[in-house]
Amino acid sequence: MENREENQKALCKHIPDLLSSFVDAFVDFSVSGGLFLPSQNPSLDPQKTHQETPLSLQTRYPAPDRLVAIGDLHGDMEKSKQALRLAGLIDESDKWAGGSATAVQVGDVLDRGDDEIKILYFLEKLKREAMKDGGNLITMNGNHEIMNIEGDFRYVTKLGLKEFEDWAYWYCLGNEMKSLCAGLEKPKDIYDGIPLNFRGVDSEVLQGIRARIAALRPNGPIANKFLSKNVTVLVVGDSIFVHGGLMAKHVEYGLERINEEVRDWISGLMGKAAPRYCRGGNAVVWLRKYSVVEKNCDCSMLEHVLATVPGVKRMIMGHTIQADGINLACNNRAVRIDVGMSKGCGDGLPEVLEINQNSDLRVLTSNPLYQSKHKSYLDADTKEGLGLLINESGSKQVEVKA
């Protein structure tokens, strides 16, 4: 009898945590478009309130058998899935199909499109599926992630604001459910410190703006859940990834240090303003010295930077739309992969970059025009679209603010 009572007490002790997990899953399902996130190690879960230190971030990885690089997504779920499917990373059911491949998305999931939160959830789902399959999906911070965390919403769409307003409704409802349980700490008001009104802001978008601030400001729920796990600089094998570009001073400052400080800032440990190397034209997420048209590409600076990172032979960047598709410059040392695929930012045809273990580069493209532009094709196996050897060629830069 005593053992039965003890077992009942032990069970009851865990009810608050079970309720909290159920509510979190309920909110996730409601705001993600119907996704249940696969389980993961609780000690690595940024939702858990007992976690006192930020997640550790890995900056350097060995070369995988297959490496895939994906450019800016900008809130376009349909094009995002097309790019992932083109790379053979997801199947027709939108589940991870990349096996042991490593994929890197170079940032700018936010702004210009209407499915920002849904893409964040979708990428998180794929990360967990990939890990169970021996693969890896790594996401990065772009300038638009930094802008939104700082409260710069110049490039948000109305439907993008509505998505965050809907998220806030479900998140607050979840908090109300948790507050009914005596064993759980009362949830913090996500709107704490956010003004009820902003001068010059139309009432139609006011609640969306307040919700977006609440979600994305340092230590905000969406910032913590997703963006705090992004890296800002990354080395995989002989490739270094960054959204904008790196200068020698950034490497000297320390790649690991940059990742840790940006993570700490997003987690609310370093004030409201982004670290200085994330602000201004020469910032790691803003630099265009290697991604503009070839005649203006600063190849000498790029060579110097790459020489300071042992074993690295190329820099892979997003940020600047390449109208002619993924291309190389500076003796194949600069790789520009932003093809402006989002409907809100160029509406280009999806392309992704593939690097095999022998360091051979290939573009997987859905653009049939390359049939007449390039002679060297490789069999794209079972993937949709065309596989082509990447050649160094000039590119036409599309001018798009921010």
Automatic annotation (TrEMBL):
Domain Calcineurin-like phosphoesterase: 66-320
InterPro entries from the UniProt entry: Calcineurin-like_PHP, MPP_Shelphs
MF (Gene Ontology): hydrolase activity
Designated name of the protein: Calcineurin-like phosphoesterase domain-containing protein
Source organism of this protein record: Populus tomentosa (Chinese white poplar)
